[in-house]
Amino acid sequence: MNALLKSTNLNKSYRIDANNEQQVLFDVNVQVHRGEFISVMGPSGSGKSTLLYNLCGMDRRSSGSVQFKDHTLETLSEPQLARVRLDEMGFVFQQIHLLRNLSIMDNVLLPGYLSKRCPRRLIEERAEELLNRTGIASLADRSITQASGGQLQRVGICRALINEPDIIFGDEPTGALNSKASAEIMELLTEVNRTGTTILLVTHDVRVASRTHRVLLMKDGRLVNEKALGPVADGSEEVTEREAVLASWLQENEV
Ligand SMILES: Nc1ncnc2c1ncn2[C@@H]1O[C@H](COP(=O)(O)OP(=O)(O)OP(=O)(O)O)[C@@H](O)[C@H]1O
Ligand SMILES: [Mg+2]
After folding, report:
1. Domain boundaries in the chain?
2. Res 201: pLDDT
3. Are 57 and 76 in contact (CB under 8 A)?
4. CATH number of the domain at 5-252, please?
5. Ligand 2 centroid to 26 CA: how many Å?
6. How far apart are alpha carbons 216 and 186 in whole angstroms?
7. How far apart are alpha carbons 252 and 231 in whole angstroms?
8. Which residues, other chains included, contact 61 with Cβ-Cβ below 8 Å and sequence gap of 6+?
9. What pairs with residue 103 in β-bridges?
10. pLDDT band of 79, cuts 50, 70, 90
C-alpha cells in the first residue's frame, strides 16, 4: 500500500550565522498511511515540530524528499505548497491562529471560501454541520474572544476540517488545555479519525499519545523508535492500560 505521506532521508539544517549551521533532522524516514492516527513524542528540542513543519510543507527540507499523495513537496513552488496546504491538509496548533475580528462561524468558513473548490452554500452547510458535531453550534455568532480554550480548539478543528483534508497536522493541539478539555479534544479527534481523516500530531502528553495508533519517538533529530498501539476500541476502559503500556515503553527508551 502506498503511503499517504512519506519522508525519505529527510534532513534539515538551520543556518545559525554566516559560518555555522545546526542540523536538526537526520535522515528521518516516516510513512503515514491513510486512516492512521499517529503521534510524535520526544524531549524538548528533539525536532518534533521541525519534522511536522517539513512534512506539511511549511518549512523546506535541506535534503531528502517528502511525498504527499502525488505531490513531491520539495519540487513545488510556494504558491503550489500553499494550495496543497489549503485544499488537502488541515492544521490544529497549540496557539490557534484565529482571526479576532471575525465570528467563530466566519473563522471556520474562511478557508472554505478561500479554497473556492465548492459553492459557498455547500461550505456553509458543512460549517454548520461541523459546529454541530463539535458541540459549539450555539457559539457560531460569538467573537472568538468570548470562548474558552477548549471551545477555541474545537473552532480550530472545524476550520481544519472545512475543506475535507486528507490529513490533519497538530503541534501540541492540547498543550494549552486542562486535562478535561484535553480529553474532550482527543475524543473529538478520535471521532474525526474514525470517519476517515488521517491525523499526525506532536505531543508531550502520554495520555494524548496513548489514544493514537502509533507513537513515533524522536531524539536529537533522529527517529529512534516507534510503538504500535492500534486503534482505541469503542468504550474505552482500556485507555488507562494503554497509558501504562506507553509510559513504560517511554521509560525503557529513557524519555
Ligand atoms: N527557525 C529555526 N532556526 C534555527 N534553529 C531552529 C529553528 N527552529 C528550530 N530550531 C532548532 O531546532 C531544534 C529542534 O526544534 P523543534 O522546535 O523542532 O523541537 P521540538 O521537539 O518541537 O521541541 P519542543 O518539544 O520544545 O516543542 C532546536 O534545537 C531548535 O533550537
Ligand atoms: Mg515543538
Report:
1. 5-252
2. 97
3. yes
4. 3.40.50.300
5. 16
6. 18
7. 22
8. 7, 10, 11, 12, 25, 54, 73, 74
9. 143
10. very high
Distance (Å, whole) CA 158 – CA 166: 14
Mean pLDDT across the stretch 15-35? 96
Q: How far is the CA of 200 from the centre of ligand 2 (A)?
A: 13
Rounded to an integer, the average pLDDT of 108-112 is 96
Closest Cα to atom 4, ligand 1: which residue?
Answer: 14
Confidence (pLDDT) at 235: 62
* Cα–Cα nearest to 4, from 95, 64, 73: 73
53 CA closest ligand 1 atom index:
18
Tens-place pLDDT, residues 209-245: 999 999 999 999 999 999 999 998 876 667 789 999 9
Report how far ligand 2's centroid is from the alpha carbon of 94 (Å): 10
* Residue located nearest, by CA, to atom 30 of ligand 1: 45
Q: How many helices (H) and strands (E) does the chain have?
A: 8, 10
pLDDT > 90 fraction of the chain, expressed in percent and rounded: 81
Q: Please list every protein residue whose CB sits less than 6 Å from any atom of ligand 1.
A: 14, 22, 24, 42, 44-50
The three three-digit cell numbers of residue 136, written as one number: 459549539
Q: Which three cell numbers stand for residue 76?
A: 513545488
The answer to whether the predicted template modeling score (pTM) of the entire model surpasses 0.70 is yes
